[in-house]
Specification:
2 domains, 4-stranded antiparallel sheet, 2 helices, mainly beta
């Protein structure tokens, strides 16, 4: 949950007050410095309390006809969920993969809605088209008919894992084998991001004109990427097998650990664990959040389900 309106301004004012006082060596009342410091600490503490007050309550789970569920996307226009099933080995080009339609109350309306894919994983919607990564290509699907519109081979790709689309319709795909991010504009793919800091990129997210990614090495790192310079800014670390990202607000996120965790990441990088299913050997893959319905949807990969949680603040 974000700080209340005006809190950022108050926090900034407190910081500026302290900094300007130190720089100019002003003789100021010590109590005023104490008050400014308390204001800053109050908002830091408030953020911690707010994160701890978040909770996820299980509402339902869907499994009928699903097989190795990797990603879930919400289609607002049709009020339906799309779920990708690998249905085989994650890197095999076997034609067994498919996409299902699942209702918001957990009914699998059409298990094999789109078939003939290899190992479909990350998905995203843009202007009536559902885009999905499929090992070394991106497939565009008409969201109404379920018909494949086109396939876009990504030259140089090895294991495309997640997909996101920015406000301009540019499609981005991560390659977890090579630690790269490709960008597709007007159906033309190009290498967009390569960095010595990135070895195994997984989840990616274009959000609010910014770009975020999850790196699997280093204990699981959450980065913001400068879209111009491509510089990486570390937001949080020690996220384990960091897999999916979904925004809760402008600068708050839910992030999954593939081993079986759902974590909240605050604007300052504080990580709070909300769900842990590792002991039950239930994975947590590429999730999504529906704000108006307060629903978090999580594919469980090897246990072949989608689990819905209600987010309470």
């Amino acid at each position: 949950m974000r700080s209340p309106a005006g809190s950022d301004q108050i926090l900034s004012a407190g910081l500026l007050f302290l900094i300007s006082s130190w720089k100019t060596n002003m003789k100021i009342n010590k109590n005023k410095i104490l008050v400014a410091a308390l204001v800053i600490n109050f908002f830091n503490l408030k953020e911690e309390v707010t994160a701890q007050s978040l909770s996820l309550t299980k509402k339902w789970e869907a499994s009928a006809g699903l097989n190795i569920t990797e990603s879930v996307v919400y289609d607002k226009r049709q009020n339906i969920l799309y779920v990708s099933s690998v249905n085989g080995q994650p890197g095999d080009k076997d034609g067994n993969g498919f996409i299902s339609r699942v209702s918001l109350d957990g009914r699998v309306e059409q298990a094999e809605w789109v078939t003939g894919l290899d190992a479909p994983k990350g998905m995203s919607l843009y202007k009536g088209l559902l885009y999905v990564v499929d090992i070394t290509k991106v497939v565009a699907i008409d969201a109404k008919s379920g018909k494949k519109v086109r396939e876009i081979p990504v030259e140089g790709a090895s294991f495309l894992n997640d997909l996101t689309i920015d406000e301009k319709g540019n499609v981005y795909a991560s390659d977890s084998n090579l630690g790269l991010v490709f960008k597709i504009t007007n159906d033309q793919p190009e290498l967009w991001l390569k960095s010595e800091q990135l070895k195994r990129v997984n989840g990616i997210l274009a959000h609010n004109n910014k770009f975020y990614l999850l790196e699997l090495t280093g204990g699981g790192i959450f980065y913001e990427v400068d879209k111009t310079s491509k510089a990486l800014r570390k937001i949080a670390q020690n996220l384990g097998g960091s897999d999916g990202i979904t925004p809760l607000s402008k600068n708050e996120f839910l992030v999954t650990n593939f081993g079986g965790e759902i974590n909240h990441v605050s604007a300052t990088g504080q990580v709070t664990k909300l769900i842990d299913t590792k002991a039950d050997k239930v994975n947590a893959a590429d999730l999504t959040y529906i704000p108006k319905k307060k629903l978090v949807l999580v594919p469980t990969f090897y246990t072949s389900k989608v689990v819905a949680y209600e987010l309470k603040k």
